[in-house]
Amino acid sequence: MIILGYESSCDETGVALVCTERGLLSHALHSQVKMHQEYGGVVPELASRDHIQRVLPLTAETLAAAGMQLADVDAVAYTAGPGLAGALLVGASVAQSIAWSLGRPAIPVHHLEGHLLSPLLANPTPAFPFVALLVSGGHTQLMRVDGVGRYALLGETLDDAAGEAFDKSAKLMGLGYPGGPALSKLAEQGDPTVYDLPRPMLHSGDLDFSFSGLKTAVLTRMKSFDVNGGAAFETAKANLAAATEAAIVDVLAAKSLKAMKQTGLKRLVVAGGVGANRHLRQHLETEMARRGGEVFFPPLSLCTDNGAMIAFAAAQRVNAGLVDLSTSSHAFTVRPRWGLHDI
Ligand code: ADP
Ligand code: MG
């Protein structure tokens, strides 16, 4: 069975073709990062309009890359939430329209289920069960993944996501968007021990996170610097960047290791853009090896938002018998806020 899938929940337009037997056939992606850069963050209305312009050309590209035509498609999947309402509506309405015109079923997909199953697209593939640390600009969650459709939330952020903490701290330091890579680069030149930043909820006893206090600490430090200090100011900023990165990485790693201990599982998968962070990778690799476990970092192209994970999640659900393909209704809605417990 051939599934055409769409992702448009935030600032990436992704389209993919997945075969339920053979896996990923082709995919195409457009990132809006450059467009949002001049505003310092994602502008929802611009995101929606850009998705509209990209979605059909990317569809043609994806079909051509697989040597297929729309008539070859057996079902159309799309991200139904969570995400930006207007952006989600673009993918949802295009997917439902194509499904309707072909007389095929449409499959709404939960964005986070896409992320959780995306490591299975990588090589090597982690076997179930595993713990997933999902760390992106929009999410910070620890999940236990026992199989397709079998997910348990272990902990999550109570306020900002880890990527958001990187982005907001970077903005306070006058670095570009997205802030994570920029802050991480500046941190290379800094000393993380000069400023002692808080490690929010490190000893909270649970697996939840909180990052909103960190940006206040960064702001307070920034205000204490002399902006006309020349080289001293640059050094102070680099030290602050290093301290910020260390604080975020420490908390993410400590809670992930706690989740491994609590579940007794040996495999950890890190998904989401923050998974690109070099310090986080090194820290988790060392600590998981010490515990006789394994950590998987799927390629970044699969970790950040993409259409492949959405079409793939739909295929996995079909294979697991979790999708009713008989429905012919193409009425739809999107769910900007949608918990994974509710799929
Ligand atoms: P979303 O679509 O929810 O914003 P993505 O999975 O696309 O999330 O990841 C983007 C996030 O990852 C941004 O917040 C960005 O700052 C962060 N990020 C990317 N690279 C790094 C890095 N090397 N270190 C820290 N954060 C990073
Ligand atoms: Mg993104």
From TrEMBL:
Catalytic activity: L-threonylcarbamoyladenylate + adenosine(37) in tRNA = N(6)-L-threonylcarbamoyladenosine(37) in tRNA + AMP + H(+)
Organism of this sequence: Pusillimonas minor
Family the UniProt entry places it in: Belongs to the KAE1 / TsaD family.
EC number: 2.3.1.234
Binding site for Fe cation: H111, H115, D305
Name of protein: tRNA N6-adenosine threonylcarbamoyltransferase
Matching SUPFAM superfamilies: Actin-like ATPase domain
Gene name per UniProt: tsaD
NCBIfam families: gcp_kae1, T6A_TsaD_YgjD
